[in-house]
Every structure is written in structure tokens, then in C-alpha cells.
Amino acid sequence: MAERTIAAISTPSGEGGIGVIRISGSEAIRIADRVFKSASGKELTALSGYSALFGHVIHNDEIVDEAVATVFLAPKSYTGEDVCELSCHGGGYVTKAVLRAVLSAGATLAQPGEFTKRAFLNGKLDLTEAESVMGLIAAKSREELRLQLAAKMGRTSKEIADIESTLLELSADFAAYSDFPDEDLEELSPENFSRLLKKARQGLEGLISTYDSGRVLREGIKTAIVGKPNVGKSTLMNLLSKEERSIVTDVAGTTRDVIENTVNIGSITLILADTAGIRATEDLVEEVGVRLAKDRIGSSQLTLAVFDCSSPLDADDRDILTLLDPATTLVVLNKSDKGQMVSEADFTDFTTVLISAKQGSGADELEKAIANISGISRLDPAAAVLLSERQRDLATQALSAAVEAENLLNAGYTLDAVGVCVDEALTHLYTLDGKRVTNEVADEVFRRFCVGK
Amino acid sequence: MNYDAGKFDVAVIGAGHAGIEAALAAARLGQRTVMFCINLDSVGNMPCNPSIGGTAKGHLVRELDALGGEMGVAADKTTLQSRMLNLGKGPAVHSLRAQIDRKAYTALMKHTVELQENLILKQAEVVDLTKNKDGWHCITRLGADYTCKTVILATGTFLAGKIFVGEVNYSGGPDGLFAAQGLSAALERLNIPLRRFKTGTPARVLRSSIDFSKLEVQEGDKQIIPFSYRSEKAPENSVVCHISYTGDEVKEVILKNIHRSPLYSGVIEGVGPRYCPSIEDKIMRFADKKRHQLFIEPCGADTEEMYLQGMSSSLPEEVQIAIYHAIPGLENAQIMRNAYAIEYDCVDPIMLNHSLEFKDHKGLYGAGQFNGSSGYEEAAAQGLVAGINAARSNMGLEPLVLSRASSYIGTLIDDLVTKGCSDPYRMMTSRSEYRLLLRQDNADERMMPIGYEIGLIDEKTYMAFLDRKETKEREIYRLRHSTVAPSEKINARLEALGTTPLSTGIKLSELIKRPEVSYFDLAEFDPCRPDLPYEVCCKVETEIKYEGYIARQQAQVEDMLKLEKRKLPRDTDYSLIEGLRLEAREKLDRVRPESIGQASRISGVSPSDVSVLNIWLEKKRREEKQ
User: Fold this and answer.
1) Are B286 and A450 in contact (CB < 8 Å)?
2) Which of A360, A381, B43, B427 is 20 to 30 Å apart from A95, CA to CA?
3) Average pLDDT of A289-317?
4) Contacts of B625 (CB under 8 A, 6+ apart)
5) For A70-86, how does the pLDDT look when each residue is reduced to its tens digit (9 = 90+)?
6) Are residues B11 and B144 in the same domain?
7) Confidence band (pLDDT; 50, 70, 90) for A249?
8) Closest partner CB to A416 (pick from B277, B292, B436)
9) What is the C-alpha separation between B75 and B227, in angstroms, rounded?
10) Which of residues 105-164 of B touch A (CB under 8 A)?
């Protein structure tokens, strides 16, 4: 049952230095041979795995690009099938042209994530790795890519494996303790039980805490731009978006609904929402906008509160301040070009940044301040990170079982109940990284303890 | 020349713990049954430890009993000493273990078999097994040809048995009996591949040669709970056991002679049980351990032979003597029977269905050590299931398949037929993911309705069970609806127990949930408490105290049952399923699992293979719908 051979551009779109077209399937090498002419005249089908040739991609008798063709033979490839990767010059036009050549030579276009799916089905990836690669496909920024690479390199898998081995040690302790009651097993001590449980619990907490920072990088930070009318919210939005997204006028109350846009500021992705100006109003339509803006503050991870620093704070400004949480708000003092009538002292507890959206000054400071307040600057991109909702969910269930086990142990419950919770935590983790609980506990008991008649 | 020895519904080869349960169950279900034994004085023999039960094994015996098996009844009648192990470690791991008078036990079992209607016991060695249109033929060494509808293989360690003592080895079965020859070749002719496992047993020594003054004493329990729900009277303790330890001297003797061990010199090819290492194995593998514990247990009321639990060995006899004499209390021990290792033929149990019938041989069943397990209790549990299923097959009924969630018996069989075993399989509580549900105290609730339905539990026993269950439920209801008010007296008591005093009234059930407080502690503050049997009180306390965790496990059971319900067709050609890894394909093809649930427990089948199977099953379902 031959699966069709697939191809796709496997580097992120945009102006990269190198673009890679990956071809995978039983026909991969032959298809590549049809479009690739090596400088040496050697054919790709003559290569052994893990080798490469330099040459040209030819389509309709014309040279499309210079390229390096790398051959991987099954099962030693990313997908576990025969794979040929054509590395050519980056940039949308060239890579697309090479892909077209490959498709016309007999490959079909890969569905999103299909390489990974094949790799997964061929047993080349465990679930954690597979999900990480899935996320990789949709990577939105450099920072995120680094994070996901770290997970793929097994960092997350390794951390999970460490927690698993702690729990397994515990479970084996319990098993030895209850299955071999007449044995003289000096290694078993309650202090050791609580130490190991604590270690596992802390490991899980650490792992789960990475999810939120991972999400920030994965999905972008939900950011609301708020302020009273006409302080320059839309100008700020446009400055950040580098395009005219919001309608900018001098008439207060122009933006009456919520406008969203995803923007990259350096390495950070923001899901920006420009909102209606917040003020006491009798206009019914405007009032709806004001209410939406207020709701938005509550549902956002980051609020950019814009104030006109060229005039003193008024009652509307002060009202807005009461809606804001200093921990997730960045006070943006706009219109610095028009003079400064307010000072940082008006915003105790808040982080402030001075800009002129109109003139584009203060943009670097703004970016830095956003990085600081969103926690991105504190994130070690090489650290393990849970990437998907499913992973977090399982880790959370494992944590809850581990916490339960710890509580039971401390409350003086018998070890059979504690053990059941430990096993449950272990099962969730094994599900997370796609392992199976088969005979691990029994094997561990026999490995570590001298038990039996 | 062979002669026609008659027609039977069920033949059982071997009369050990598996064979007895199989034969009794089949006969009791109305099947004309014949059971073969190499020596009739060894029916139900205990060639190793003179005890029944132990962790998880005790659970097996209780479940077996509630299904209508015999082991628990016989053990109760021949108990020398009984202990509930793991008290204080939680109800899930409480396990009953009893020292047994082994001669009394075999005599009783043999007599029970003899008295059983429909059952004939024969001293004979089956040397050939064939099948033709009339059914299976069991042919004995003397040429008797028994024609049978179904055959249960329960050959224990007899099948091509070989004894090892140091450099000496010879063909032989346990306890000086002879080995079963010929049958192995017959099985290979049926395309049933065999493999070698090994086990061992320690020496028996003369009681009067032991210096008990140097030994610790181990007493039985004050309050004894019998194994059997049918035993009207609890056994009484009549003996004590003793404990000693090996030290440096034993280690020295072993290290000096290890090259003479057949295991270390490579003469033994069979795989031994990891949980039951010989003393030389313990010393070699756990070199850092300062001492190893051993138990000295009486073999019976009418014998002076004492069993040295923990000291099995296959070293030469003179080295054994030196080792035993290096142990405090045994300096002058007279060895009556030497320790030995025994190697035997058995099968890889993944050739069997959950019914214990061979997948490729209709009417042929395996049970006990023949299936790769170890232990009297594991054997008996499989024997019962094989016997029931041989009978049900003959009667045209669906086989009895016990789920993992129902019992340790179900877990044992599922482990064997799904994962196979690479060394003799011993039951452990940690092998059950549902151990808070599968307690020894509720084996009757889990198994007796099944035993009753099958027809092995009589009306009277079943009614008594229903009565017991109702009493328990009524008491739990009462405790949930009775409030105790704070008083100086109860608060003083609670503080003494190390728990917080009351400031308002509280339900008695809530107080029992506190880990420090037991059901019995509250007697004086619970004036309406009925007078209930001790066992019922324990059960009431457990169910209240562990309510939350029991519910938690129940939820896991529901999850698993969903996967078990996704049935895989038996004739599935796994080589045609796209996306399965090669290893998974081979394993699935070998095991031929009955459900996605079982497939997911096969080692070598990864979650991605399981999702492929799920996708494939779904695809198939949709195609069939069209």
C-alpha cells in the first residue's frame, strides 16, 4: 500500500536566507532527480543516506535556482520515509517556484502537519515532540521558534522523564513496602516518601508554570489599548501595526467598536485591540463602545493605557486609572512632542513610558517596557516549555494527583491511598509523553530491592 | 497397543493447585471429568513453602473462594498459623497468609477430589496428546487412550522437569517425584512452542537441630479471618514461626563457591523468577546488603521438618550445608531435604485467550505454571477459570472473562495473555491499577454474584452473602445519618487520638473519615450501634474512610471500560493496516487482542499505534455503515 509522495516548503514563509523544500515518500528521491541536476552529473538515486549534492533546480528547461539536495533514506529520516530536501535561496518567489517544479514532477502538496503526522505514525516522534513540531509549523516569531526547538530537542521530554522517574521510584517503594511486608527493607522511610513527593510536585509546578510564558510566545499577548477619547490610542495602534488600521481623526469618539490586529514588536507578538475612548457619555452607540473597552481591560493580559501628557489628568483619566491593574498595565504617556503636563508621580505603582506616537519617538522604550511587563524578558528560551493545551491539561492532572498524594501522606492516610494517587500522576505523565505503563513498577521493585522467598 | 479408556467431557493433566480447581469446577458444572496425576500421593502437593496466601495472593484465594473454588476452604481446615499482612498499611494491601499443614492439605484435597461426583482421579502419566474428529486424545504411558472434548494442561514443574544441585543434574519433578516426559514432544507436534523456566526451593531441616534461643519469634494474629466465606469457624493458631538473618559468613561461603552454581556457570538455561531469588542470587545481585532475612516455618503438625523461607539455592549439597550452618540458630541444623533448582517446560501465555483456551487449538486450555506463572494461588486461580471455561465451551456457553477492574484473577490473566511474561509471573498488589477497589475484604461482593450465576456458589452461601452485604449497607447509611454532639468526653478522646476536638455536631461518618479515628474508637459515643461481625465493621470503616479514593478509581474503571468496548475483530490482518509500526504489527499479530483496551496494554504497541488502530477501526465502521 504505497502512500503518495508529498512535498512542501518546510521553512517559515518570509525573507529567510534559505528556503527548504522537503519531499517525502517512496518516490521522493526519483521525483527530486527529475528536477535536480547536480553540478557533478551524479544522480540523487545513486546516493546513500545522509549525503548531499550541489546543483540546479530545472523546470521547463530553465534554471529555477541553485540548490543543495540532501538525501535521507528510510527509516533514517525525519518522517521515517525516503526524504529529499532541496535547500535553495530563501524568499517566497524562489521557494514557491522550486515547489511548483517538484509538484509537477509527481509529488502532491503536503497537508499542514503531514510530515509530522507521518513521522509520528512511523514512530519517529513521541507525542511531546510531535505536538512541538505541530506548533513549529505555526510559529509566529523567532522567540517562539527557539522555544519550540528546545522542546523538540527533548528538553520538555527530559524534564517530564525526570519527574516520571521520581514518581516511579516512589511507586516502587510503595510496592516493595506493601508487596513484600516480611522483607527487611531498610531503604524505605517516610521521610524519603515525602521528600520524593515534594520533588515531583515541585517539578510539575515548574513545568506547568512554563505553559503561561509559552503561551505568550506561542499565541501572542492579548493587549488592549485603552484611554479616554482622543489621547492617541489609534495613532499608537497604527504606530505598532505600521499601517493605518484604525481611523485616526481629531473628533473624539471616532473608534466605537474594538479593532484587533496582530503585530510583531521585535520578538514579541501582540494581539492588539484598539478600543473606544472611555468617558462618561450620553451617546448610546458610544456608550456600547465604552462598555466593550472596559470589558476588554478585564480580558486582556496586557493593557496599554494611553494618556495625553500634554494636558493635566482630568476626572475621566482618573476614572480609567481605577480600572487598571498596575501588574499588567503599561502607562503610555503620549504626545510628548506637545510638552509634559503630567509626571510619573501621577501614576504611582504603574510602569510608565513616554512616547510620541505621531512622531514615532520612544518606540524602542515601549518595546522594552512591553517585554519587561509581559514577563518575556524573564523567559529562558532554552528552558522546557509545555506547548499545547493538552500537555498542560495532563500535567495539571498529574499535579493534582501528586498534591493529593502529598496531602494524604501528611494527613497520615495509609500508603495504599497515597500510592493510588502517585500511580495516577504517573499515568497522566506517561500519557503526556506517549509512553505506556506496562511493567515499570514491578521491574523497578525487582531491580532495586532484594525481595522474595 | 493403545486401548480405549473411555470418553470424557474434560481431561485435566496434572493434579496440582491448578488441576484440582479446574477438575472440581468442571465436574461441579456437570462435566464428566478425568484428572491425571503422576503420583496420587502428590495431589495438591506443596513442594515449596508450606503456606497459602500472602500479598495479592491472599486476594486471589479470597476471589477464588467467592467464585466457588476449593483452595480457601481447604486452607482454612489445615491452617497452623494465620496472619493478616500489611495491617496499618491500608485496606487495599491487607492480605491474608496462613501456614499450612502440607500433608493434611494434600490428604484433604485428594479426598475432596475423590468424593466429587463426575470426577475420576487417575494415577497416570500422559505421554501423548492428539486430536482427531472424535476430539482430543490423552494417551498414557501404559497405552490408555482417553477421548475428551476439552483438555486442560496443568503440568506445573513436571513437564520435562530437571533438577539442579551444584554440578549434579538429572531429570526429575518436584519432591523426588519423576518428571513428565513425552508430552513436550506431543505439544511441539501440535505446533505449540515451549520454553524453559526455572524455580527453586530451600532445604528442610530437623526441628530439634535448631537453636531457637537465638531466633526471633513471629506469632499469628489474635483475631483470625478465614480465607473462605464458607468457613463457619475461623482457624486457630497452633504454631509460631521464627526469623533469623544471614551475615558476612554466609556471604563468604557463597562468594567462594559461586562458580559451582549451575546458574552462574551457565548450565541452567531456564529463566528464574526475579521475586524469588536464591540466596546466592541475593548475595551476588545485592552485594551492599549487610544481611538477608529468613523465616523458619513448620511444615506440619505431624512432622519435624522445618522450611527455611528465603534460602533457596542450587549450590552443591555440601556448600548448602556450610551456608545453613553459618546462620545463627542453624549452626547444627540437620538437613533432611536439600535445596534444589528445577527447570521445566512452559508456554508463552500470549498464545492463550482470556478464557485460557489456546487461540489456535479449540478445546485446549492451559493453567498454572504451564502458562508461565508461579505460585500455588496464581495456579489455582487460572485452574478455576480454565475449568469453568472448558465446561462452558462444552455446554455451548460464552466463556467467563474477568476484567482487570473486577479482580486480581482478571488482572493476572490479562497480564499473562496480553503482555506475556519473561520470568515466572507472581501476583503483586502493585500490578493492579484498581487496588483500592479490589480489596480482599470485598472479594465476595465482586465475585460471588458471578460464582452464583455460573453455578459454583450454592443458594445458602449466596443468601448469606446478600445478607452480609445488606447489613453493611444499612450500617453505612446509619453512620451517615447519625450525629454526635460535642462533649468533654468525646473531645478528650479525639485529642487523645491526635485529632481536633468538636465544636459543633458532626456525622459519625465524617469522624470515621479522619485518618486518626477508627470505627471501633467511636463505640462508646454511638449508643445505637448494632452488634456486627468484626469483618463487617472493618468493611464499613474502609468504605467510609476511603470513599473519595474509591470513587476516583471507579472513574478510572469507567474510562478503561470504554476502550475495552472497542472490539477488534479476531481475524484482523495487521499487516494491512497502514501506519502501524513494524514492531506493533508483529506484536498485534501475535497477541491478536480482543479490544483496543487490550491492544493498548501490549508492550511494543505505542500510543501512536493505538491511535492508528482507533482511526482504522473508525474508518472500517464508517465503511460498513455505507
Assistant:
1) yes
2) A381
3) 82
4) none
5) 999 988 888 889 999 99
6) yes
7) very low
8) B436
9) 7
10) none
pLDDT at B275 over 80: no
The answer on B111 and B26 residing in a single domain is yes
> Which has the higher per-residue pLDDT, A254 or B475?
B475
Topology (CATH level 3) of domain A6-125: Gyrase A; domain 2 (3.30.1360)
pLDDT at A215 over 80: no
List the 371-430 stretch of A: residues with Cβ below 8 A of B.
Answer: 411-417, 419-421, 423-424, 427
Q: Let me know whether B317 and B355 are in one domain.
A: no
For the record, the C-alpha cell of B337 comes out as 531435604
B112 & B222 share domain: no
Distance (Å, whole) CA B165 – CA A63:
80
Measured between CB atoms, does B302 come within 8 Å of chain A?
no
| Domain identity same for B133 and B225 | no
* ipTM, 2 dp: 0.79
Assigned CATH for A219-378: 3.40.50.300
Q: Looking at the structure, do residues B78 and B139 belong to the same domain, yes or no? A: yes
As a whole number, mean pLDDT of residues B551-569 equals: 84
Output the pLDDT for position A151: 57
| Closest alpha carbon to A109 in A50, A18, A24, A42 | A24
Cβ burial, residue A48 (10 Å; 0-12/13-18/19+): exposed
B499 in contact with A at a CB cutoff of 8 Å?
Answer: no
Length of chain A: 453
Of residues A145, A200, A142, the one with CA closest to residue A171: A200
Q: What is the pLDDT of residue A246?
A: 44
B453 by DSSP, 3-state: which?
helix
CATH tag for A155-213+385-448 (out of 1.20.120.430, 2.60.120.620, 3.30.420.40, 2.40.30.200): 1.20.120.430
Q: Return the bridge partners of B132, or none.
A: B135
Domain boundaries along the sequence of chain A: 6-125, 155-213+385-448, 219-378
Q: What is the 3-state secondary structure (H, E, C) of B2-47?
A: CEEEEEEEEEEECCCHHHHHHHHHHHHCCCCEEEEECCHHHCCCCC
Same domain, B14 and B161: yes
Residues A380-419 as b or e (16 or more Cβ within 10 Å = b): ebebbbbbbeebbebbbbbbebbbbbbebbeeebbbbbbb
In a shared domain, residues B127 and B39: yes
b/e sequence B557-571, b meaning 16+ C-beta within 10 Å: beebeebbebebeee
CA B423 from centroid of its chain's CA atoms: 15
Measure Cα distances from A174 to A410, A417, A419, B533 in Å.
15, 10, 6, 31
Helix (H) or strand (E) holding B297: strand B292-298
pTM flag (> 0.80) = no
- Position A156 scores a pLDDT of 74
